[in-house]
């Protein structure tokens, strides 16, 4: 049975045990009630209260308790039995050392496919020529790459085509000349991209922590002290559909809105279920050898 991740999203919620089940109660209303056998993690996104009986059951059934503050993970309670996390971490380190291409090519395959979906949408709708066919061809080449260097070359080739297409789609008044990560004089679209990627990083970070993965051990991004390498790996699949595409739509609707930070922040509505599902897929692949399939936008 595939276990579920339970979220605590209501301020003032009380998490308790009732007749052997874990319940989330808000003002005497039961928001959810689950058997501990069907829960893998409980994610606390807001201030709430917690019964010590829940902690006892969490230890017994190997349930991870993860706590957030301001959308960032701040603590994760590991059961005294050390059931899952240590096993995941050891296998994750082995895979990162011995077989990083296995996952790196899937992350980049998903990334370029999803970039193609974004570009192809406008090609199909307006008849533009944005390099979609070339981008689609590169996705196939990524799968046959033999090492990290070849994968990164294909990623760079895809990025060149993709951002050229994005530039064509954006109003010239924005002054977008290409993707830039840093700089004091960034154009409004690059500034908005950086905000979106920052928010996406927090969501993926939370999913990685909740799944029991080590966020610092990546497959594509090399280990560097303090760098969330695995988070950056997993983010690749979501950048275009969750950040780029809504911003392109906003810019084409009214480019002036990109200068209003409140509008930019409110533009991003991430599908948390998809992000958490990908983290769980990665765990299942690392632990049990299941095929890892990237998130494929439609």
List the helices and strands and how they pair.
Elements (H helix, E strand, L loop, with lengths): L3 E5 L4 E6 L2 E6 L2 E6 L4 E6 L3 E3 L1 H10 L2 E6 L2 E6 L7 H14 L1 H27 L5 H12 L4 H22 L18 H23 L18 H7 L3 H15 L7 H7 L4 H17 L10
Parallel strand pairs: 1-5, 2-6, 5-7
Antiparallel strand pairs: 2-3, 3-4, 7-8
Helix pairs in contact: 3-4, 3-5, 3-8, 4-5, 6-7, 6-8, 6-10
Enzyme class: hydrolase
Keywords: Antiviral defense, DNA-binding, Endonuclease, Hydrolase, Magnesium, Manganese, Metal-binding, Nuclease
InterPro entries: Cas1, CRISPR-assoc_Cas1, CRISPR-assoc_Cas1_C, CRISPR-assoc_Cas1_N
Describe this structure in words.
There is one protein chain. With 298 residues, the protein is of the alpha/beta class. It is 52% helix and 15% strand. The protein has 2 domains: 4-81, CRISPR-associated endonuclease Cas1, N-terminal domain (Ribosomal Protein L15, Chain: K, domain 2), CATH 3.100.10; 86-288, Four Helix Bundle (Hemerythrin (Met), subunit A) (Up-down Bundle). The chain has helices at 52-61, 85-98, 100-126, 132-143, 148-169, 188-210, 229-235, 239-253, 261-267, 272-288; strands spanning 4-8, 13-18, 21-26, 29-34, 39-44, 48-50, 64-69, 72-77. Helix 3 (100-126) packs parallel to helix 8, helix 6 packs across helix 7 (229-235) and helix 6 (188-210) runs antiparallel to helix 8.
Task: For this entry, give a set of tags.
298 residues; alpha/beta; Ribosomal Protein L15, Chain: K, domain 2; Four Helix Bundle (Hemerythrin (Met), subunit A); 2 domains; 4-stranded mixed β-sheet; 10 helices; 8 strands; 15% strand; globular
């Amino acid at each position: 049975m595939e276990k579920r991740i339970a979220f605590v999203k209501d301020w003032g919620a009380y998490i308790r045990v009732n007749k052997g089940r874990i319940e989330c109660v808000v003002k005497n209303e039961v928001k959810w009630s689950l058997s501990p056998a069907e829960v893998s993690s409980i994610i606390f996104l807001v201030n709430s209260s917690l019964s010590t009986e829940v902690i006892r059951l969490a230890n017994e059934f190997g349930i991870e308790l993860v706590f957030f503050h301001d959308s960032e993970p701040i603590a994760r309670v590991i059961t005294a039995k050390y059931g899952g996390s240590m096993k995941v971490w050891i296998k994750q380190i082995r895979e990162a050392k011995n077989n990083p291409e296995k996952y790196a090519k899937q992350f980049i395959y998903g990334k370029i496919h999803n970039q193609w979906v974004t570009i192809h949408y406008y090609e199909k709708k307006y008849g533009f020529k944005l390099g979609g066919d070339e981008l689609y061809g590169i996705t196939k080449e990524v799968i046959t790459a033999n090492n990290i260097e070849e994968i990164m070359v294909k990623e760079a080739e895809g990025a060149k085509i993709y951002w050229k297409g994005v530039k064509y789609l954006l109003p010239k008044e924005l002054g977008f000349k290409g993707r830039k990560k840093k700089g004091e004089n960034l154009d409004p679209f690059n500034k908005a991209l950086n905000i979106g990627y920052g928010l996406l990083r927090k969501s993926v970070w939370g999913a990685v922590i909740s799944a029991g993965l080590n966020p610092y051990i990546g497959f594509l991004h090399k280990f560097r002290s303090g760098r969330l390498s695995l988070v950056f790996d997993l983010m690749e699949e979501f950048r275009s559909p969750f950040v780029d595409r809504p911003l392109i739509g906003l810019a084409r609707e009214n480019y002036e809105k990109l200068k209003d930070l409140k509008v930019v922040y409110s533009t991003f509505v991430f599908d948390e279920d998809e992000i958490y599902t990908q983290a769980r897929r990665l765990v299942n692949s690392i632990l049990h050898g299941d095929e890892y399939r990237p998130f494929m936008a439609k």
